[in-house]
Amino acid sequence: MDLLTLLVQSGVNGLVIGTMYALMAIGFTLVFGIMRVVNFAHGEFYMIGSFVAFITYAQWHLPFAMTLLITIAVVGIAGALIEWLLIRPLRADELTGMIATLGISVVLQNSALMYFGASPRPMPDVVSGLVRFGPVVFSWSRIFVIVAAALVIGAFWLFMQKSRTGRAMRAVAQDREAALIQGIDVERIFPFAFGMSVALAAVAGALMAPVFSVSPFVGITPMLKAFIVVILGGLGSIPGAVLGGLLLGMIESFGATLFGALVADMLQLALVIAILLVRPTGLMGRKEA
Amino acid sequence: MTTLLDVCGVSKRFGGLMALKDVNLTVSDNEIVGLIGPNGAGKTTCFNVISGTFPPSEGQITFDGHNIVGMRPNRIVRIGLARTYQATSVFPTATVLENVVRGAFTRSEDTFLGSLLGLAASRDADARLRRHCMEILDRVGIAHVHDHLAGALPYGFQRRLGVAIALASDPKVIMMDEPAAGLNPEESHAMGQLIREIHEAGGTSVLIVEHDMRLVMGICHRLIVLDHGEQIAAGSPEEIRNNRQVIEAYLGTEAI
Amino acid sequence: MNTVDTHMTQPTAASASQRGFWTRIVLVTLACAVAYATPGLLPNLFYVHIANLTLVSGIFALSLWIIYCVGQLSLGHAAFAGLGAYASALLSLRLGVPPFVSLLIAGIGTATVAALLGAVILRLRGVYFVLVTFLFGQMFTLMVLNWQSLTNGANGLISIPPITILGLSFGPRPVFFYFAFVVFLLVLLFTWALSRSTFGRAFDSIEQNIDLAESCGIDTSKYQIIAFTIGSGIAGVGGAMIAHYIRYISPDTFTFHNSVAYITMLVVGGRSLFWGAVVGAAFLTPLPEFLRDFAGLQHIIYGAIMILVLRLLPGGLISLPATLRRIGGGK
Questions:
Q1: Of the candidates C10, C201, C211, which has its C-beta nearest B105's C-beta?
Q2: Contact of C285 with C50, CB cutoff 8 Å
Q3: How far apart are CA C216 and CA C214, in angstroms?
Q4: What is the rounded CA–CA span in Å between residue C331 and residue C320?
Q5: Mutating which of A110, A221, A237 best tests the C interface, going by the most C Cβ atoms within 10 A?
Q6: What is B89-170's CATH number?
Q7: Residue C39 CB: number of other CB atoms within 10 A?
Q8: Is residue C109 a contact partner of residue C87, using CB atoms and an 8 Å limit?
């Protein structure tokens, strides 16, 4: 394979994982920004999303668009319920809220393990075939992931900018007291924000299910990456999550091509610590007054 | 009178916002200085810059011969410049007495190893410190609740405890951020009395931010007025009361 | 001034602390007596093994509590344990350092790494600190996997020599019990003394109100680094103990899940007092062993217990008596 092909393919792969990281990080950072809760169970919702997609698409043979809608609905509602039942009473203290999500993560992951078993299941591609640009070959399935993820991110952005609820959510994230004074019902926003956040993670899981495979442990890596992305982009910053996600995807893809996957992983972690040294609030993070 | 605190040409920017613009103020020993101004004038920012919470964008601050720009808050306290907070700020699950003992942390003669091993010398030092702190509680008038948990105290007592904690570090100057906020007129009057007593008994200077004009006019020797981060007037309470600019700044927000 | 006199008179304080001193001596002696008889009383070696693991878990939970005391949660605690384990194992395997000496070196080495890392990351408050300790844990695992020539990668290190002092080998389970017990007791007494020392006063001030602590003249960063260093250093010793006891370590011995398990112990036992960590370790370490027939379920139960305790008994098991009394009194 010549150098050009290698570079272009690394770029496409970088975009695939980058958009996935962005989807993960947006939800993670949204919940932190609005609720001040670090959700250690975020990766488990990615895992649940990929299982829902696996069941509805690979087993029930529903159309993939339907699969995505079901995933969003199921995980979104489950997330809102979890917020209402478990996180609401515990999030007053930052550490306690964090510990609660650790517990939720352990329970969800091991329940999936008991029910589905540990062995990874392959999922068929949603679209197949190859596309050729001169010497460079892509598979349509990768392009599909990029386009679908970009559409979801776009829809989310529109929602946050234009809709009443979206604007209310941004107001709460910016200044909770002020939002309260403006008459925004903060308590009603929280379950909605949490449900939406984990639904985004589930969409990432559903989209990536054909690319990787489906198992109870698939959520761990995306969550780790989401952490790295929000540190890169600044906790609470949604543009930071998108840019950080794409940047990390590119670094990872090109790093793996040039140095191998494990070295690329270590480079990322070193990069994060270096960035925190220079800018403790991340690249696009706000300074706390 | 010697100048203890000297704030010279201090500015503070947050992003594009100019929170403080060329502020100058001094506090000499044995005086009570008031820092007043409408809401959002930059008074609390000014306190935070002086106490080292964040550095000024420009300007010099010296205290008792030390340059304190860039100094960590705990160092600033140790050279004798203490502060209280606008909201109640106590250690909620420690007793009232223990709160004050913590305020005296740097004045303690206790040593780490001594306290770790429970040596007699260390116990004596601790007992002496506690007696000293009981006296402080007595001065601020809450000695009778010394064994209550601080978080369970009534609001007015918590404000007094905040003052006691600051006093325990044996400061030359105390900065008080709205000591009477949220207090009713009687409590507010008693707080003014307390500040005057602290000043008269120990010769401690006080720099005070306060909205309650009766309180400020009653106890301060000098006043400095901020508006939109800028100093618009300085002088005796009498001069400030009749200053046109000050009256204009306050008009529409609250009556002076 | 009446209150001062009645409450702070010297003789009562002195005699009370003297009484406390003798109570403690009696307690420690009693604990030693019970411990001396324990290995003989347990029905078989499996129970001795569980007792040993419980003691080491107690060391991990106590050391994590010290860090929690300054209001920080370390998700890299297992990584520090692993660092100590690998350091001590490699020192004894490759350089022939006697295991007891290598254990001490490992503790000091781990503490040094923690101090350096702490100096860098403790400027980060709350969430960022937690995330970075989490990343540190991941980085440790990756490094152990990658650095094959030193760590033997995923295969781990085998035939690690047991701890031997003056010709006495602490390899056999019942003998190791005594070693683990002595170390546990030392850590327990140290943690107790620490919580009552001037450092303990500074730690608790930081935990309750970090801004006010700073305004009291307490150098909050310094004390946070100290707590992080002490806690992580003790975790390193605990990890080294595991290495010389199990005599085999791999990247799987100390993972994120272990860090979560230590946090669970702290939460379930009770976070407000140091012995809550001990109660949590004593309750949760044997639990999986008795749930062996339900593989997979044990983790779910761990997680569920943690959430239930947070929800229903926020003070942990050590607050149970007070809670029961309140409920009883309410009737």
A1: C201
A2: yes
A3: 5
A4: 17
A5: A110
A6: 3.40.50.300
A7: 20
A8: yes
Q: Is C324 exposed, middle or buried (0-12, 13-18, 19+ CB in 10 A)?
A: exposed
Q: Which two tokens stand for residue B165?
A: 């904690």
Please give the mean pLDDT across all residues of chain B: 87
B195 near C CB under 8 A: no
For C192-251, what is each residue's pLDDT tens digit?
999 989 999 999 999 999 899 999 999 998 999 999 999 999 999 999 999 999 999 999
Burial class (CB in 10 A: 0-12, 13-18, 19+), C166: exposed
Distances (CA, A) of A265 to C131, C144, C230, C330: 16, 13, 29, 56
Within 10 Å of residue C199's Cβ, how many Cβ atoms? 21
Cβ distance C142 to A266 less than 8 Å, yes or no, reads yes
Instruction: Please report, for residues A20, A111, C76, C101, C137, the alpha-carbon distance to residue A217 in angstroms, rounded to integers and kept in the order given.
Output: 16, 11, 20, 39, 18
Helices (H), ranges, A121-219: 140-162, 164-174, 176-181, 186-208
Best interface-test mutation with A: which of C139, C145, C301 has the largest number of A CBs within 10 A? C139
The reply to whether residue B112 touches residue C199, judged by beta carbons under 8 angstroms, is yes
* Mean pLDDT on B11-15: 83
**Could you give the CA distance from residue A198 to residue A24 in angstroms, rounded to a whole number?**
8
Q: How far, in Å, CA of C171 to CA of C162, rounded? A: 5
Letter for the amino acid at B192? G
Is B33 in contact with B221 (CB distance < 8 Å)? yes
Q: How are the residues of chain B apportioned to helix, strand and coil, as percentages rounded to the nearest 5?
A: 45, 25, 30
Residues B199-208 pLDDT 10s: 888 789 999 9
Residues in a beta bridge with B12: B20
Which residues, in sequence order, are bridge partners of residue B222?
B33
Provide the b/e sequence for A238-257 (b: ≥16 CB within 10 Å): bebbbbbbbbbbbbbbbbbb
Beta carbons of C120 and A273 less than 8 Å apart: yes
Does pTM surpass 0.90? no
Query: What does the alpha-carbon distance between residue C265 and residue C261 come to, in Å, rounded to a whole number?
Result: 6
pLDDT at A208 over 80: yes
Residues of chain B with CATH 3.40.50.300: 1-80+171-256, 89-170
Fold of B1-80+171-256: Rossmann fold (3.40.50)
Environment class of B184 (CB within 10 Å of its CB; exposed 0-12, middle 13-18, buried 19+) = exposed
- Token pair for B171: 């400061």
Burial class (CB in 10 A: 0-12, 13-18, 19+), A151: exposed
User: Do C66 and C197 meet the contact criterion of CB atoms below 8 Å apart?
Assistant: no
